[in-house]
Amino acid sequence: MKIYAHRGASHDFPEMTMVAYENAVKQGADGFECDLRLTKDGVAVLWHDADLKRRANNAAVVHESTYAQLVAIYPQIVTLDQFIDFGITEKKSLLLETKHPVPSRTEIENHVVQKLHKEAKRIEKAGIDITVMSFSWFAVERVKQLDKSIALTYLIRETTPRLSVRYSSAHSIGPGIAQLRKKPALAQQIKSAGKKLNVWTVDEPSDIILCRHLGVDNLITNRPAFAREVLAAN
What we know:
CATH architecture: Alpha-Beta Barrel
Mean pLDDT: 98
CATH topology: TIM Barrel
Shape: globular
Structural class: alpha/beta
Largest sheet: 8 strands, parallel, barrel
Radius of gyration: 17 Å
GO molecular function: phosphoric diester hydrolase activity
Number of domains: 1
Distance between the termini: 14 Å
InterPro entries: GP_PDE_dom (IPR030395), PLC-like_Pdiesterase_TIM-brl (IPR017946)
Protein name: Glycerophosphoryl diester phosphodiesterase
Strand order of the largest sheet: 1-2-6-7-8-9-10-11
Low-confidence stretches: none
Oligomer: single chain
């Protein structure tokens, strides 16, 4: 089971900043997870929320702001270019989550695929895996349409229609840990369908052990060092 740092080592450092990812390396993460949005001028940045209220106490909306405006508000903001370059340099695999719904629809997927094509040789040389993820069924299918070779994860909630999971082109399914805790049999259902299991966001010892017991492939956690300690002790 691989350990992915959710937005970096975000239990201890500001989420999706370079310091969070640098410390995820120190904490022994196999890879990193991030959220992606496009700025008004077409720059892909690592940002979870639609606006900057929670992280920067500012009402600026990502898709309505230029990259320069966002940097002026929150200097620690990271671009997709910087993130991929860091992953390649550190030889760490990446989970790229595209956020929806957004006014630009699947433009973020187009952007990500273009970037992965541009960096294909460096990614291969580094020997890392890069997976595109989304809660949007259409976003996952858009990436499949653009490039069938890109690994995909369809993130799901308890309210996600079963048919959308069944007919997803994704190579892996990503339920939340609360779903697995409530319905452990879901793990075997996903595995029996020939798909991998990426589970978010797993921070509690009992949940970490449950994931190992259920054969989870990739565990996404805010606490990579702690997850390793729990696994080593059990």
